[in-house]
Amino acid sequence: MKPSTLKQILLITDGCSNRGEDPAAVAALAYAQHITVNVIGILEEGHAEHSVSLEEVENIAKAGGGVSQLIYKQALTETVQMVTKQAMTQTIEGVVNQELKQILGPGNTLDDLPPDKRGDVLEVVEDISETANLEVLILVDTSASMHHKLQVVKEALIDLSISMNARLGNNKFAIFGFPGKREAAVKVMDWTERLENVSSVFPKLATGGVTPTGPALREALHEFSRQTLGKRSANDGMTEYEEFGS
Amino acid sequence: MKNSAAEIRTGIRLSGKWHHGDYPLIRKLGSGAIGSVYLTERNGIHAALKISDKRTSMTMEVKVLQSLKKVQGYFLGPCLFDTDDYVSPSGQLYTFYVMEYIQGSRLDTYIKAKGPEWLPVLLLGLLDDLDHLHRSGWIFGDLKLDNLVVSEKPARLRWVDVGGTTQLGRAIKEYTEFYDRGHWGMGSRKAEPSYDLFALAMTALEILNGGRFAKGETPKNSIKKALHGAGKLRPLLEKALTGKYTDSIGMKQDLVKLLMKKKSPTPVSPPSRMTKSNRRKTGLGESIVLSVYAIICYVIYLLQ
Which of A244, B56, B275, B283 is most buried per CB count within 10 Å? Predict the structure, then answer.
């Protein structure tokens, strides 16, 4: 099997979108291009009313074919990993289910197989998620209320890098912050295999401003297409990676 | 797990979708990230039933249990009886499997009741099991106090949950921060024997320290501090924590050496017992001399 690449956007925010287009619409656009959108909403401790809404977080992830979680900041480290891994499995299972339907006819999803047969199929799913290449663009909300949470975000991302780099497949991570000074989102860390250097970029994340979640997601989406174009020209028109579902 | 708290609970009966087994949920034994474990009954014998809506993880756990069965003549982990699906009245699909119910006490409770000399002895047996597991291509992964049970006759440390068991060379599937070397910045999360040995050493440290300790500003220093309370096991645990052992056998050999050395003249048995056994045979004067000697020994022991 050719090496495959799974593409994800991980949105970490503590507020509702209040500027620009509907983030769920942009997430749907991303999903159509085989980029999964995951969302983690961070709740404020000791507040009965939260500025981040479960509905928005769920809507974006659902439209983006990904996973969403609403949590307090202490749970961020485990959640970042759980969401990333779960979305990988979900994407691969989706592809496998489609293949099953094509081979065995409709009504033959994983749920319709007895447990022992299902095991063999899921072993393939696990093999792929262990060996597939993964590209995650992390989109961090840097509005004022996120200021005291950035330290936790940093630790969670370093931990994510430790977990993902233990896999057999390759990983690439990039970090974008939003809002930027003029743009909706700015690149604060270029594509890298290791997130350990994240400490040096986090002070750069200026905090303040509105929450243009939709436009920021669009910026992330552009980054992926820029990257793919770059890869294509570098390989003289040949794509090195086979993308899932394409 | 959505709705599971209400739908899956003690008192209900589960019937399997494929094999039609019928299992009463007698009592909840525990729950974790993947699912919940209940005490059940199968052919009149107690068994453990794990149920979850996380299909992929559950199916892989079954695969692990099946392949452990193949390691000949040796029971690594609980024996697997049945695996099936359950469709709840609301239509939600769950996966469950039924396995051997390993009865016993928690390791920390056992050590408290029976004495600290049991810790290295039980670790010895576990190192043997780990060696078998590693040789058959698996790393336990989520090794921790909660996943270990001391079964009696003979006293043996057994693991009860294989949820973290990972193929050699891959990324550890499930772990608990305190026992995870990645969390302490002392190694990767790649499945290799030294990963399990780190977790094993942390389990021992947890018991010797009477609980877990925090990571702090400099994780390595926090571990060093905890090692001060490890007594005779300190050099062994230190080697395991710094990844000096590449397999369980190396650690086992060191532990055996350490245990054999213990027979040296320094008296470590509690002084009170010593005086009691001597009082019967000897005169009053002698027993007073012995008591004084014992008290001095005890003071020296405390000062150390």
Answer: B56
Tokens representing A196?
């350990």
C-alpha distances (whole Å) from A69 to each of A39, A53, A55, A114 are 7, 11, 11, 31
User: Can you tell me the mean pLDDT for B202-222?
Assistant: 95
A123: nearest CA in chain B?
B60
Contact B59 A130 (CB under 8 A): no
Which residue ranges in chain A fall short of pLDDT 70?
A: 1-3, 203-204, 206, 229-246
Say if strands B138-139 and B166-167 run parallel, antiparallel, or are unpaired.
Answer: antiparallel
Which H or E element spans position B22?
Answer: strand B22-24
- How many A-B residue pairs are in contact by the CB < 8 A criterion? 57
In whole angstroms, give the CA distance from residue B202 to residue B217: 18
Asked whether A10 and A38 are in contact (CB, 8 A), the reply is yes
For tokens 């233990």, the residue is A166
- CB–CB of B60 and A126 under 8 A? yes
B4-100: which CATH topology? Phosphorylase Kinase; domain 1 (3.30.200)
In which band, very low, low, confident or very high, does the pLDDT at B284 lie, cut at 50, 70 and 90?
Answer: low
Please report, for residues A189, B190, B216, B242, B258, the alpha-carbon distance to residue B223 in angstroms, rounded to integers and kept in the order given.
33, 21, 10, 11, 21
What are the structural domains, with CATH classification, of chain A? Answer: 4-44+51-243 (3.40.50.410)
